[in-house]
Amino acid sequence: MTTTAPDTPRKARRPRAPGRGVPLALLAPALVGLAFLLVPLLALVVRAPWRDLPEQLTSPAVWDALRLSLVCATTATALSLVVGVPLAWLLARTDFPGRSLVRALVTLPLVLPPVVGGVALLLALGRNGIVGRLLDEWFGVTLPFTTAGVVLAETFVALPFLVISVEGTLRAADPRFEEAAATLGASRFTAFRRVTLPLIAPGVAAGAVLAWARALGEFGATITFAGNFPGRTQTMPLAVYLALQNDPAAAIALSLVLLAVSVAVLAGLRDRWTRAV
Amino acid sequence: MIRSARRAAGPAALALLTALGLTACSPSSSPASGDGGPSGTVTVFAAASLEESFTALGERFEKEHPGTEVTFNFNGSDSLAAGIVGGAPADVFAAASPATMKRVTDEKLTAGDPVTFARNRLAIATAPGNPHGVGSLRDLAAAGLKVVLCDETVPCGAAARKALTAAGVEVTPASYEQDVKSALTKVRLDEADAAVVYRTDVRAAGDKVDGVDFPEAAQAVNDYPIALLEHAPNASAARAFVALVTSPEGQKVLGKAGFLAP
């Protein structure tokens, strides 16, 4: 609670215009919500084994897991951008039969328990999966138990966040800019690239940050589809889960590392990219 | 402005604490009704490998004691122990290893000493028909064979490590799975060629996998302890359930599932 107090005067100053400040009916539930989110994190910090922390941080296994997490989450975000932005554009700017159904299907991984997502990926892309079998036959490629498998699992759960975020921004953006570009002779793709994309850049960045964060914390689909092998598929959440089995103190320390890194990255990105949002 | 924020913070925190308190004491079981026989709900935290046999024993218990209901939480023993230490409202804990039970007894959370009620030994699970001809632990080291083991933080992984060391075999698995069931699932989905699991898991999977016994398993037999918990909400019915598990009748069910007698 005391952590929110220093913020209050600054926040209160800004929206002075309409009324006499923040109504209690909004402030009270807002503070409950904030406390609900922050108290568990605070508990992690309070109960962290600070004395053992240096030892945890110098363990090469931790750095392996952290490096793998960052590489995989970033690659998954890049993949999501490459296919997600066009998909969002398709949903927002074109009209085709069954579009609302497609939109619902795109968001399906959001409600699917990630472990089920992992099993679904195995059935599709596993050694014996409906697509994976062909990959194995034609190219000798098997995805489960590989780092590429981690990236795919993370992309599967992160992509919907990006698509939803970008599609929302596209709908809010004025299509007349694109139409104006078209009347000036730009092709639809050029208009997208030169006009639409810069217009929705903040929304794309916000979606990318959301997707990255989701990918970084991904556990269920990853451990189910890619398994758990240190240095190859053991990301931080997997390392935390397994440490929790017999050494909760180590698990807390690992979680703190993950939290610190994500806060640093998200805060840094927020300042640089998404100030406008 | 600041004052109003402060004033709101008090009730807000109170509301949050009340909400948390309420979920913590949600009624999961009703106490015994006092007229002798067990009644009400018994909550049993049991190792994942006990799922088939304990489910059968639970049904038998409900039939023998009308008015009772046995609810199970099957999970990795370590997660269950962590839950009990964290205050989960359970009546009985059945673990897949003495080490996990020790975490509960160390906190003095059991009523009396745990009793070993079953033992389990390892086996190699392969696809039906054993297409890669796995016949021993040594065969798992063959190049190109995809093997999954349990992670060493869970009992089946620790046992597998013990057996592999006893055999002097070095196996690089494709993955260290988080529990025995997910190791078995990898074989059932044909993502892995072989997994070191419990014999009971092989038996529970029926004709979906083949089991290969190996002599080194004798050096890595797991004891399964069971205990009544100190803060059991329904101690009398829980005691009756533990009695059923350790009775000859219970032992027969466990034996049929592939467990060894204690």
Terminal residue distance of chain A: 27 Å
Oligomerization state: heterodimer
Indicate the percent of residues in helices of chain B: 25-40%
For the biggest sheet of chain A, the summary is: none
Secondary-structure content class of chain B:
alpha/beta
Count every beta strand of chain B, where a strand is a DSSP E run of 2 or more residues: 10
Q: Treating each run of at least 4 consecutive H or I residues as one helix, how many helices of chain A? A: 13
**Annotation field: number of helices of chain B:** 9
By secondary-structure content and strand pairing, the structural class of chain A works out as mainly alpha
Encode the helix/strand succession of chain A as letters: HHHHHHHHHHHHH
Count of the separate structural domains of chain A: 1
Distance N to C terminus of chain B: 69 Å
Succession of helices and strands of chain B: HEHEHEHEEEHEHEHEEHH
CATH topology of chain A: MetI-like fold
In the residues of chain B, how many domains can be counted?
A: 2
Present the secondary structure layout.
The complex is a heterodimer of chains A (277) and B (262).
Chain A: H1 7-13, H2 24-46, H3 53-57, H4 60-93, H5 99-111, H6 114-125, H7 132-139, H8 147-172, H9 176-183, H10 188-216, H11 220-225, H12 236-246, H13 248-272
Chain B: H1 2-24, E1 40-47, H2 51-64, E2 68-75, H3 77-85, E3 92-94, H4 98-106, E4 115-120, E5 122-126, E6 147-150, H5 155-167, E7 175-177, H6 180-188, E8 194-198, H7 199-204, E9 210-212, E10 222-228, H8 235-246, H9 248-256
